[in-house]
Write a structure and sequence with these properties.
- The protein is an all-alpha fold.
- Among the domains are: 176 residues, no CATH class; 103 residues, Serine Threonine Protein Phosphatase 5, Tetratricopeptide repeat (Alpha Horseshoe).
- Helix content is 68%, strand content 0%.
- It has 24 helices and 1 strand.
- Helix 2 runs antiparallel to helix 3, helix 17 packs antiparallel against helix 18 and helix 18 packs antiparallel against helix 19.
- It starts with a helix and ends in a 13-residue tail after the last helix.
Length: 496
C-alpha cells in the first residue's frame, strides 16, 4: 500500500505511455536508434526535467540514509521512466536495489518466481520490438533481483535500440557482475564497448569469451580487428594499413593517441576534486580485474571526498575483491591462509560499518551476524541474528545460524529448537540450507540420545540427498542403537 505522501511524490512525475517490445541482441548503435514500433515516454520538457531532478534529489537522500529502500525505488523508478537515457538515474536505481539486498548478487529469495507478469510482459515487448515497454517492465523485474541476467541483457538491447549507449553498457556491466566469466555476456559487453570506442576493455571481454570457447574463431578475429583499430586511432597505421611515415607529419600527429586509462588519469590530474573521474578510472581497473589499482584510486577518492561514506563503500568493495583475487591466486598454503584471515577480518569490519550506517537494514544485520559466527564471536553473532530473523526473507537462515551459535556455547536445547524452526522456515527451493538444517538437527538429536528425532530429520535428509555427508552412516548407527542400546556412544554435540 502506497502512503498518501508517496502518492503525492509519485504524482509529480508524468506517467509514461504503454507500448510493445524485442529479442535479445547486441545493443544498437546510437547513431541509428531504431524506434519503429516502440512506445516512448512523454517529451522531456524543461519543466518535466526540473520535476525529475527534484524527485531524484529527494531519492538520493533516502538512498544515502539506507532505511526505506522500497520508497526510494518508487521515486527512482519515476526518474528512469521519465528520462530512460539518463545513466545517472539508471545507475542510482540499480545501486539502491543492490544495497537493499546486501549486495548478495541473487536478490530476493525465490526471485525467479516473483514478478512473473512483468517478466512475461518484457518478453512480449522484446518480441514486438517495443523498446521502452521492455525497459519499463525490466525495471519492475529488477526490484526482486537487480542481478537478473536475462532481464538486464534484454534491457541493454532495448536501451541500445533507443540510442542510449551508456545505459546499455551499464545494464550489461551489471549482468557481468552477476557472472563475470559468462561468454555470452562478455560478448555483448565487447560489442557495446566497441561501439563506444573503448577498445582496451572490449579486448579484455573478448579474451574471456576466448577462454570459455577456445574453438570459437570470433573472439580471435574480433581481437585482431580491435588491435588494428586501436593502433590506427593511436596514429600507428595509415588508411592503407601500412606503417604511417613519421618524418613529415606534424608533431601532434606523430604522438600516439592516449589509451582510455591514460585519458582518465589525466582527467584526475587536471580535476583532482572531481570524484566521477576517480570512479570511472577505478571501474576500468575493476572491469580488467586489476583490483590493486582500483583500491589505490578509490583510496585517493575517499581522501578527496573528505571521507564520504558512499566513497568508502566503493573502496571497501574493491578491497574485498582484491583479497578474494589474492586467495584464488595463492599457491602457497600459508599465504592462502594468511589472505583468508585478512579477508574475514576485512569483511567483518565492512559489515559492522554497513550496519552502523544502515541500522534498519536487516540484511546487513544477518551478514554481520554470520561473519561473527564464522569468526567464533558467538554472543555478538546471536545479538545480530536475533534482529535479522525479523526479516521474513532471512528468517530461515537466521534461525539456522542461531542454532549453530547456541550449539557452540553448549545451549543444546536452544540449538535444537532453532534448527527445527529453520527446517520449517527455509523454503524448499533453498535446498542447500534446508539440508544443512536437517543434518545439524539430526546429528544434535543423536548426540542428545533422542533417537526418534534424529531418525526423523536424517530420514527426511536422506530422502532429499542420500549421499549428503555421512547421513547413511548415521542412519545405520541409529538402527544399531535401537537393536543394541550398548552399541557405540553418540558423539558429543558439535557443529560443523
Amino acid at each position: 500500500m502506497i502512503s498518501a505522501a508517496r502518492m503525492s511524490a509519485m504524482a509529480s512525475a508524468e506517467a509514461p505511455q504503454e507500448g510493445k517490445k524485442s529479442a535479445v541482441e547486441p545493443p544498437a548503435s546510437a547513431e541509428t536508434p531504431q524506434e519503429g514500433k516502440s512506445s516512448a515516454p512523454e517529451p522531456l520538457t524543461s519543466a518535466k526535467r526540473g520535476r525529475l531532478e527534484k524527485i531524484f534529489a529527494h531519492a538520493s537522500k533516502k538512498a544515502a540514509a539506507g532505511v526505506d529502500f522500497d520508497y526510494t525505488t518508487e521515486l527512482l523508478m519515476q526518474c528512469v521512466l521519465g528520462d530512460p537515457g539518463n545513466a545517472t538515474y539508471v545507475k542510482t536505481y540499480i545501486e539502491n536495489l543492490q544495497k537493499k539486498y546486501g549486495n548478495n548478487r541473487k536478490g530476493s529469495s525465490l526471485a525467479q518466481f516473483k514478478e512473473r507478469p512483468a517478466r512475461a510482459a518484457q518478453k512480449k515487448a522484446m518480441a514486438a520490438e517495443d523498446w521502452f515497454e521492455s525497459l519499463k517492465h525490466g525495471l519492475k523485474v529488477l526490484t526482486v533481483n537487480p542481478w537478473d541476467v536475462s532481464t538486464l541483457t534484454a534491457m541493454a538491447t532495448a536501451a541500445g535500440k533507443l540510442g542510449q549507449r551508456d545505459c546499455a553498457l551499464f545494464y550489461l556491466r551489471c549482468a557481468l557482475a552477476a557472472n563475470p566469466r559468462d561468454p555470452a555476456i562478455n560478448r555483448l559487453c565487447a560489442l557495446a564497448l566497441t561501439e563506444l570506442g573503448q577498445y582496451d576493455q572490449a579486448i579484455v571481454c573478448w579474451h574471456r569469451v576466448e577462454e570459455a570457447r577456445p574453438d570459437d574463431d570470433e573472439p580471435k578475429r574480433s581481437v585482431a580487428v580491435l588491435m588494428v583499430k586501436r593502433s590506427r586511432d593511436r596514429g600507428e597505421f595509415g588508411d592503407d594499413m601500412g606503417p604511417r611515415p613519421t618524418s613529415n607529419r606534424p608533431q601532434q600527429q606523430q604522438q600516439a593517441k592516449l589509451t582510455e586509462e591514460q585519458e582518465l588519469q589525466q582527467k584526475v590530474a587536471r580535476e583532482p576534486d572531481h570524484l566521477p573521474h576517480y570512479f570511472e578510472l577505478s571501474q576500468l581497473y575493476i572491469n580488467e580485474e586489476r583490483f590493486r589499482e582500483a583500491v589505490e584510486v578509490l583510496a585517493k577518492a575517499y581522501k578527496v571526498s573528505k571521507e564520504d561514506p558512499d566513497v568508502r563503500e566503493k573502496w571497501e568493495d574493491a578491497q574485498l575483491r582484491h583479497l578474494r583475487q589474492k586467495i584464488a591466486k595463492a599457491k602457497d598454503p600459508e599465504k592462502r591462509t594468511k589472505y583468508q584471515r585478512a579477508y574475514f577480518e576485512k569483511e567483518l569490519d565492512v559489515c559492522k560499518k554497513r550496519v552502523e550506517r544502515y541500522p534498519g537494514n536487516l540484511s546487513f544485520k544477518y551478514e554481520l551476524g554470520y561473519r561473527y559466527l564464522l569468526t567464533k564471536q558467538y554472543p555478538e553473532a546471536i545479538r545480530e541474528l536475533q534482529s535479522a530473523r525479523n526479516d521474513p526473507r532471512r528468517k530461515g537462515v537466521s534461525m539456522l545460524a542461531l542454532g549453530q551459535c547456541f550449539q557452540q556455547i553448549k545451549q543444546y536445547r536452544l540449538a535444537m529448537s532453532h534448527y527445527e524452526s529453520a527446517i520449517q522456515d527455509i523454503p524448499d527451493r533453498d535446498a542447500d540450507n534446508k539440508k544443512r538444517a536437517l543434518y545439524y538437527a539430526g546429528r544434535l538429536a543423536l548426540a542428545l540420545k533422542d533417537l526418534d528425532t534424529a531418525e526423523r530429520h536424517l530420514a527426511v535428509l536422506a530422502g532429499l540427498d542420500f549421499t549428503y555427508k555421512d547421513v547413511s552412516a548415521l542412519l545405520d548407527k541409529i538402527a544399531k542403537l535401537r537393536e543394541n542400546p550398548g552399541f557405540g556412544r553418540p558423539s558429543r554435540p558439535a557443529s560443523d
